[in-house]
Design a protein that fits this description.
Bound molecules: guanosine-5'-diphosphate, magnesium ion
Strand content of chain C: 35-45%
Distance between the termini of chain C: 54 Å
Largest sheet of chain C: 10 strands, mixed
CATH topology of chain A: Rossmann fold
Largest interface: B-C, 44 and 36 residues
CATH superfamily of chain A: P-loop containing nucleotide triphosphate hydrolases
Structural class of chain C: mainly beta
Number of domains of chain C: 1
Oligomer: heterotrimer
Structural class of chain A: alpha/beta
Shape of chain A: globular
Strand content of chain A: 15-25%
Number of strands of chain A: 7
């Protein structure tokens, strides 16, 4: 018999509009194309996978490259990684119409069992794209030094309102003539107390503060205050 | 014309439609949609086949036919597994949005009976009923979606002038209305004569194209 | 134009022949196949009335074979043709036709109707493999094909629709294919094409200039589930997909080709692939009744 919809997990409550019950901490990773979001996701998976059950949703722009990269890197079991197609509008999929991403998160939980942490990577967009609060609990905005050291000064919702700002590729600062001190000062001024970290994730540096920040969020959520 | 209908038919209603091209991505890639004229013909073909069927299913659901029986009728009218999966996925996404917008026991029941998603037009019909809309309203929203989805996608796929795309949709307006009326009439017949009275019009290239699209390694749209 | 006049002349002859039967149909064929108790298949009912004639043809046991003969070759406006085939539990039957069915314009403005009903009992085997239906210029034909299949039966159904004889504009053709398995409708598809069909039928979502449309419906054939879903590439002249249906062990192959000649080979190839012995044969495919 062909079965289009085998009812594998009849107990799940996917249809509630707002989640409910125990669910994973959902962390959005936004930021411009190429800033190092996928590299950060990979590094976070390596740092945290022995402590918590992790799933990843990627929102690729035209390809499944991010999901495939993560699969190749084997940072997680394949059933814990899924990709959402965004119809050429990555910001719509994480902000205006989050339904496909919500489905993807629920499908992951169905395939992989209960998860503690879901990392959602945005398709890479401009500086204004942020995640809907209906989709994620907290969001990390990833920029890099090569994109210009004036990005923190220019602001924009990602830079100013994200729960954590990651400035990546500090290993390139010298080569591109980026002034890290100035970036730090500008970020602090724009963000009014929200944290900023400097990383070089592809060089294995700086992921620990990001992982620690997520651990702290997980602990808060477990304590019922997330 | 009710505001609830405008909301239900609004492309910005968060029900997942923005990531689907209604077959336009395949047709563009294979050179069958190249401009506003071929887009109009594509929309027309879709409207009078799967659009009519979907509109009749939606109208029947709004008129009070058994949604689960309609769900089976939708399966029988959708031979492509890819398009069945797409329809159910969109149905699940629409149900989520509709339950937030128009909470109702009928939507809850449908969600419980089809946790993996009921077919989208069936969900739309039940949602329309929950929103106090008529079967003709549901048919209109569904028939309009049959043309607006490829038209919107083609703006992105071909960088087609958005004014041309809007003009295509405007010119199709009377045909959309006529299809919606035919769909509603068929839905009424189905209520008295049984679901076999629902239209079953098919578009072979949409089925074949959808299967091929799903096998592409990379794509912009989910379908 | 001369083609249309020729067709009308044929219609005059046929109408003059007075083939309309008492029940108001122009032609009716009824076939019933049952096991003959000796491992073969008997045909206790084999009748053709009016425009339809049926003939038992030779075949290797244990099956029986029937050919629908020439008289059905021209449904004209207003004609009503009907074929009923019933295959009893465990019986095996193949039905073909001697020639293509050419729908022609008639004197009556009403469309012609051609209705086929196939009923398969448990473990019955039916191969319905008629020649193409051709919608000549000016014709108007409504076909319905309804197959009711019991669990465990094997149905192989081929339908080829050709729009227009060579180089002529097509008449109107509406064909609805309905399949029930164990009483549940699992397929209901209608194809409408030709002059007067709904707008867009020949556009980029419809036939896109193809003039032959084929369907292969495979029910209870284990091998069909192993077919690749995408059967051709965009560069091929024939566009085809094999789609497993929901809720039944059935697959529909849909194919579009520039003309009838290019359509048939793909359908035959696909059929052979689907009926090739599978590594895990199901009882329905076993040869002994
Ligand atoms: N030099 C350097 N390159 C990096 C670093 N992090 C990522 N990259 C490279 O930047 C490119 C884009 O990274 P990716 O994670 O795919 O960016 P995304 O588009 O934001 O997901 C890749 O070639 C990475 O190897 C870093 O810390 N330093
Ligand atoms: Mg990435």
């Amino acid at each position: 018999m062909h079965q289009d919809h085998p009812e594998v997990f009849p107990q799940r409550h996917t249809m509630s509009a707002s989640g409910g019950g125990r669910r994973a901490l959902r962390v959005g990773l936004g930021g411009p194309v190429g800033s190092g979001k996928t590299a950060t996701v990979a590094a976070l998976c390596r740092a945290l996978r022995d402590e918590v059950a992790i799933g990843v949703v990627t929102n690729d722009i035209y390809t499944r490259e991010d999901a495939d990269f993560l699969l190749r890197q084997a940072v997680l079991a394949p059933e814990r990684i899924t990709a959402v197609e965004t119809g050429a509008c990555p910001h719509t999929a994480i902000r205006d119409d989050i339904s496909a991403n919500l489905e993807a998160v629920e499908d992951l939980e169905e395939q992989a069992g209960p998860l503690d942490l879901v990392l959602l990577e945005s398709g890479g967009d401009n500086l204004t794209a942020t995640f809907s609060k209906g989709l994620v609990d907290v969001q990390i905005f990833v920029i890099d030094v090569a994109g210009g050291d004036d990005i923190p000064r220019k602001g924009g919702p990602g830079v100013t309102t994200s729960d954590l700002l990651v400035v990546n590729k500090v290993d390139l600062a010298e080569h591109v003539g980026a002034d890290l001190d100035r970036m730090a000062t500008d970020a602090a001024a724009q963000r009014g107390g929200l944290p900023t970290v400097f990383t070089s994730v592809a060089r294995g540096q700086g992921i620990e503060p990001v992982a620690a920040w997520i651990r702290e969020r997980l602990a808060r959520k477990a304590a019922g205050a997330a | 014309m009710s505001a609830a209908l405008l909301l239900l038919a609004d492309g910005r209603f968060p029900a997942g439609g923005h990531a689907h091209s209604g077959g336009a991505e395949t047709a563009v890639a294979e050179g069958r949609i190249t401009d506003a004229a071929t887009l109009a013909e594509f929309c027309r073909g879709r409207l009078h086949t799967t659009g009519l069927v979907a509109a009749a299913l939606a109208a029947a659901a709004t008129a009070g036919a058994d949604p689960l029986a309609l769900d089976g009728a939708a399966d029988a009218r959708t031979p492509s597994p890819v398009l069945r999966a797409v329809s159910r996925r969109l149905g699940r996404q629409l149900l989520r949005a509709a339950r937030a917008a128009w909470p109702s026991p009928a939507l809850d029941r449908l969600g419980a009976a089809r946790p993996r998603g009921a077919h989208q037009p069936v969900v739309l019909g039940v949602a329309a009923r929950a929103a106090g809309l008529t079967p003709l309203d549901a048919a209109r929203a569904t028939a309009y979606e049959a043309v607006s989805s490829p038209a919107t996608a083609t703006v992105r796929l071909l960088a087609l002038d958005p004014f041309e795309s809007a003009a295509v949709l405007a010119r199709l307006g009377p045909e959309v209305d006529a299809v919606a009326e035919a769909a509603e009439a068929a839905a009424r017949r189905a209520l008295s004569e049984g679901l076999d009275a629902l239209p079953a019009a098919s578009a072979p290239l949409l089925d074949i194209g959808a299967e091929r699209h799903a096998a592409w390694p990379t794509r912009l749209f989910t379908s | 134009m001369s083609g249309e006049r020729g067709a009308a002349a044929t219609g005059d002859e046929r109408t003059a022949g007075g083939v309309r039967t008492a029940s108001g149909v122009t032609g009716a064929a009824r076939i019933r196949a049952v096991p003959d108790g000796r491992g073969g298949t008997a045909l206790p009912l084999l009748t053709g009335e009016g425009a339809l004639a049926v003939r038992r043809t030779r075949t290797a046991p244990p099956g029986a074979a029937v050919t629908l003969v020439g008289a059905m070759s021209a449904p004209l406006g207003g004609d009503r043709l009907r074929v009923d085939v019933e295959v009893g539990a465990g019986a095996r039957l193949t039905v073909g036709s001697a020639a293509a069915t050419v729908a022609l314009p008639g004197r009556e403005r009403r469309p012609a109707a051609y209705d086929v009903r196939l009923t398969l009992a448990e473990d019955a085997v039916l191969h319905w493999l008629p020649e193409p239906v051709i919608a000549a210029a000016g014709s108007d034909l409504r076909m319905t094909m309804r197959a009711e299949v019991a669990p465990g039966a094997l149905l192989v159904l081929r339908e080829e629709l050709v729009l227009g004889r060579h180089g002529e504009p097509p008449g109107r053709l509406v064909s609805r294919l309905t399949l029930t398995v164990d009483g549940r409708t699992v397929l209901d598809q209608e194809l409408a094409a030709g002059r007067g069909a709904a707008p867009g039928w020949d556009g980029p979502a419809g036939l896109a200039g193809h003039r032959a449309a084929g369907q292969l419906l495979l029910v209870g054939a284990e091998g069909a589930t192993l077919l690749p879903r995408v059967l051709t590439t965009r560069a091929d002249a024939v566009q085809a997909a094999a789609t497993p249906l929901a809720g039944a062990p059935a697959t529909l192959v849909t194919a579009l080709a520039p003309d009838a000649r290019e359509l048939r080979p793909l359908l035959i190839r696909t059929l052979h692939a689907a009926l090739a012995p599978s590594p895990h044969p199901r009882p329905a495919l076993a040869t002994a009744p």
